[in-house]
Amino acid sequence: LTQDELKKIAAYKAVEYVESGMVLGLGTGSTAKHAVDRIGELLSQGKLKNIIGIPTSKKTHEQAVSLGIPLSDLDSHPVVDLAIDGADEVDPHMNLVKGRGGSLLREKMVEGACKKFVVIVDETKLVKYVGASGLAMPVEIIPFCWKFTAIRLQKLFEYAGCSAKLRTSGENGDPFVTDNGNYIVDLYFKQDMGDLRAASDAILQLAGVVEHGMFLDMATTVIVAGELGVKVTDK
Ligand code: DER
């Protein structure tokens, strides 16, 4: 099975939790895309009715519009019944790294407002500890004096061998700009950060930081699709 086929299997399994009448958080990324497609399909077949989608990015908003999924926002629906979204890393405590697609802020707002948050991943996303993949742990920051903020983030995690890099988009090397008009500094770790809650608090205390990509104690269910089958873990 290809990685994308595994993503699709996890996504379809998650959509089994969707009931008619729900307000749904619609995730962002290549795995969540399959879940949104599936919801659109069930709606068009009349197997799901009266769904309201709360998209976690402009990209997902466009996908949902093209599928005819009725959409709204957190102002109109401050409580969301269920969110389905992917993740870049899942640790053994169901802590996540998200945001490698750049949508972490709206994802965290929507998923923080959910009664249930179902995470869908293929098995390559499982890690021993957050940051262990050596891939980015994103931090959304305001553009003003981004270098000042990036250096302070790097210093914060010197003990974990952290390096901070401004995310650029395209070949011209311009800074990547999020849906919210902010920049992203990607943090790369060589060792375990240790106490993630303390790390989260330290990041958010830096003036100029908007949000980070660690989703701690937020997932209620994790669905992992692997070569040997699908594994569902509840909090
Ligand atoms: O950017 C994000 O938060 C995405 O949900 C990411 O975490 C997972 O993206 P993928 O499903 O394309 O791997």
Automatic annotation (TrEMBL):
GO terms for molecular function: ribose-5-phosphate isomerase activity. CDD domains: RPI_A. GO terms for biological process: pentose-phosphate shunt, non-oxidative branch. Pfam families: Rib_5-P_isom_A. It catalyses: aldehydo-D-ribose 5-phosphate = D-ribulose 5-phosphate. Pathway: Carbohydrate degradation; pentose phosphate pathway; D-ribose 5-phosphate from D-ribulose 5-phosphate (non-oxidative stage): step 1/1. Keywords: Isomerase. It comes from the Eukaryota. Its EC number is 5.3.1.6. It is an enzyme of class 5 (isomerase). Belongs to the ribose 5-phosphate isomerase family. PANTHER family: RIBOSE-5-PHOSPHATE ISOMERASE 2-RELATED, RIBOSE-5-PHOSPHATE ISOMERASE 3, CHLOROPLASTIC-RELATED. NCBIfam families: PRK00702.1, rpiA. This is ribose-5-phosphate isomerase. It comes from Rhamnella rubrinervis. The lineage of its organism: Eukaryota, Viridiplantae, Streptophyta, Embryophyta, Tracheophyta.
